[in-house]
Amino acid sequence: MQLVAAIVGPFKSISQPQTVPIEPSVTVFVGMNEAGKTVFLQALEKSDDAVGLAAFDPIEDYPRKDLSAYLREHKQKPSTVTTLTYRLSKGELDELNGALHTNLPVDFEFKIARDYDNKLNMYLAVDEKPVLATLRETAGLSSDTKAALASVVAVRSIPGALAGLSLTEKDKAWLEVIQERVEKARRESVVESEVRDWLQPRVPKFAFFGEYALLPSKVNLADLAERVQQARGLKAQSQRPPVRAAQKQIFPQHLGVLALLRMADISIDDFTKSGGYEPLKARLEAVSIRLTDEIFEFWKQNEDLEVEVDIKTDPEDVAPFNEGPNLYLRIKNRRHRGVSTPFHQRSRGFTWFFSFLVWFDSVQHQLAASDESRDRSVILLLDEPGLNLHALAQADFLRYIDELSRRHQILYTTHSPFMVNSDRLHQVRVVEDRIKTGTVVSDNVTNSDERTIFPLQAALGWSLAQNLFISERNLLVEGPSDLLFLKAMSSVLEAQGRIGLREDVTIVPAGGLDKVITFVALLGASGLKLAVLHDYQGRPEQKLEDLVRQKLVAPKALLDASQFREVSSVGKRGRPTDIEDLLSPSLYLDYFNKAFEKQLDGRRIAEIDLPPGDRILHRIERYLADADIKLRPNGGFNHYSVAAALAGAPPLLVDSETAARFEELFRTINGLLV
Questions:
Q1: By the number of CB atoms within 10 A of the CB, which of 101, 259, 354, 509 ranks highest?
Q2: Are residue 316 and residue 245 in the same domain, yes or no?
Q3: 19 and 168 fall within a common domain
Q4: Where is pLDDT greater, at 656 or 335?
Q5: Residue 120, SS3?
């Protein structure tokens, strides 16, 4: 189950509710200090905290300038603070439809709203007709019962519809099950109530980790035990919100130590028992070794570090460390003959990494131990995770985030360009603190302050500096295969005395349509001449249309491949088209067969072999799937390989239709970039 959108506000610096789209794997929040990045994550955390320690409190969370007015109406009408939209995976949807006999569509979504009184409201729409159809088909029902069910439009109405009928034993048993469902349902729609009950325990929880949650270098275990005991008592006595009393005793650094002890299967009481030092230390050391090994799968800056755990008393220390045993964490550097230093004095990046692993393991342990949360996933909220890492170490951490995102959605904040994947700028949300409106979160960078989008410009600039040169005239395309096709066909046409692409135009493969859009938005106003050529999916690209409305690019500078597929109607959009479709199918297949000659083992694919369709790439991929031909493990084929084969040995001549299409394309581009 995935979070697809979040409406947050009013909450702290977010004065007005605003909708923020969330990416399926990773969403990055970029903005200046104090812009409100952390505030957004905190709102999500309090919506459904995985560890049960965060809750909304109007005194603490409602925008202060409006607090007095709001408190007068809070008890009677608590304000909604977050509304979260979720979408089920295909597997979950199939399971739900199979279990409840519903027919929810593939794009089924539902919303969960949380108010300032911390009550939850779920919003969804469910059609009962498929369920009723299944019930009518129940084997063994009498003809009278089936006739009565024909006019029923809701499950709740079934008992009334059958009242007064002479029922068979099978009818009675069946009706008893229906009545139980009706009595159990807490809403008018029985099926909707059942869907809610199915969804509720599967909704992901949020887990927030920030700088303040780092493990300490030492903690007094007697003091920690007393704090835990007092927190339990205060929590039991406290009214709303119930978690704040416990927070007065247990601070984030204490939670980290408790998590470490839990991982080692040690309770606080174990330290008061005599003769327990060696077993306890052995278990703690085993956990620290395992965690250190996990870190070094991604930490490549210094692999000679290890975490050392010790337990001892120190009567000479200051209170509370002079009473009873203390737990010490130190980092040993084998590169310097095993010299060790207190945990907090070493690399901030390494201590963050270690503390995060301890915390995250604890969160997973708590969810696994809860019957209610056993099937829940966790959405990770990371506040400035790479703040203290070297630029190359941040690249290592991005790999770690990618690994985590295979199992969990991740939302993190940053203002570092090295914590933004330059080939995934569509994942970025910019956060600004505007004078009149407060914190604003948006996926539109075009109207953002230049200081806010600086990390994006730096990330993009770093990528461009490594991969290409920018000239005055630039044609933006989606990928490197497009560049190869255009370069090769320009050379072929020029050799035939026809029009090719002018030499002073630089073809820029941006790495996908989203990055093309971001490139135009960030650099289109910098005096460069830009044109865009993209594949056409059968409908206008809304984000490109938005760039036109914002006057960042001229309408005529947005070109798609379908405009050149029919030479008789150049400039008019037609059927879905990739740049590859400007080549004749036979020409493209000739180079496809050359590119994958070894994998095809002598087989040559002709156009007559392919299923019908508009796009040569899709037709080939469908053919490969139907014929069970695997050119790569995950299916399909590498489009770049075909482009490289054509660029490496371009044809001396091409058919007239192919030549005419590309000539019209080059003529149009040359005219735009004069």
A1: 354
A2: yes
A3: no
A4: 656
A5: strand
Residue with tokens 């075009």: 446
- For residue 45, pLDDT over 70 is answered with yes
Q: Which two tokens stand for residue 3?
A: 């979070």
Nearest-angstrom CA–CA distance, 521 and 612: 38
Quick one: tokens of 522?
């960030």
Q: Could you tell me if 123 and 195 are in contact, meaning their C-beta atoms sit under 8 angstroms apart? A: no
Whats the size of the chain, residue-wise? 674
Residues 6+ apart with CB under 8 A from 358: 215, 256, 259, 260, 263, 291
Within 10 angstroms of residue 206's Cβ, the number of other Cβ atoms is 24
527: β partners: none
Cα distance between the two ends of the chain? 50
Gyration radius of the chain over CA positions: 31
Report how far residue 8's alpha carbon sits from residue 17's, in angstroms, rounded to the nearest whole number.
5
Residues 481 and 620 in one domain: yes
Residues 262 and 338 reside in one and the same domain: yes
Q: How many CB atoms within 10 Å of residue 117?
A: 16
CA dihedral sign of residues 173, 174, 178, 181: positive
Contact 39/11 with Cβ under 8 angstroms? Answer: yes
Would you give the distance in Å from CA 620 to the centre of its chain? 31
195-201: long-range contacts, CB 8 A cutoff, minimum separation 24 = 195/96, 195/100, 195/102, 195/104, 195/124, 195/126, 196/122, 196/124, 198/96, 198/99, 198/100, 199/96, 199/110, 199/122, 199/124, 200/122, 201/372, 201/373, 201/374, 201/375, 201/376
> What is the DSSP code (8-state) at residue 645?
H
Three-state DSSP at 375 gives coil
Q: Report whether 447 contacts 48 (CB < 8 A).
A: no
Look at residue 504 and give its three-state secondary structure.
coil
Provide the token pair at 53: 């320690």
Q: For residue 208, give the 3-state DSSP assignment.
A: strand
Nearest to 192 by CA among 149, 160, 154: 154
Identify the top-confidence range among 410-424, 437-451, 573-587.
573-587
Is the same domain home to 183 and 304? no
Q: What are phi and psi of 531, to 5 degrees?
A: -135, 150
- What does the alpha-carbon distance between residue 628 and residue 619 come to, in Å, rounded to a whole number? 14
CA distances (Å), origin 423, targets 32, 78, 427, 590, 672: 22, 42, 10, 31, 27
What is the residue range of 579's domain?
A: 469-674
H/E run at residue 617: helix 616-626
How many structural domains is the chain composed of?
A: 4
Which amino acid does the sequence have at 634?
N
Tokens coding 559: 């070109």
C-beta separation of 508 from 470 below 8 A: yes
**235/291 same-domain check:** yes
Q: What is the DSSP letter of 182?
A: H
- CA 557 vs. chain centroid, Å, equals 32
- Binning pLDDT at 50, 70 and 90, where does residue 536 land? very high
Q: How confident is the prediction for the chain on average, in pLDDT?
A: 84
Please enumerate in sequence order all residues whose Cβ is within 8 A of that of 124, keeping only pairs 6 or more positions apart, or say none: 110, 111, 192, 195, 196, 199
57 and 198 inside one domain? yes
Q: Nearest 5°: phi and psi at 21? A: -70, 140
Mark 613-637 as b/e (b = at least 16 C-beta within 10 Å).
ebbbbbbbbeebeeeebebeeeeeb
Q: What are the pLDDT digits (tens) for 361-386?
A: 777 776 665 555 555 688 999 998 87
E strand or H helix at 19: strand 18-21
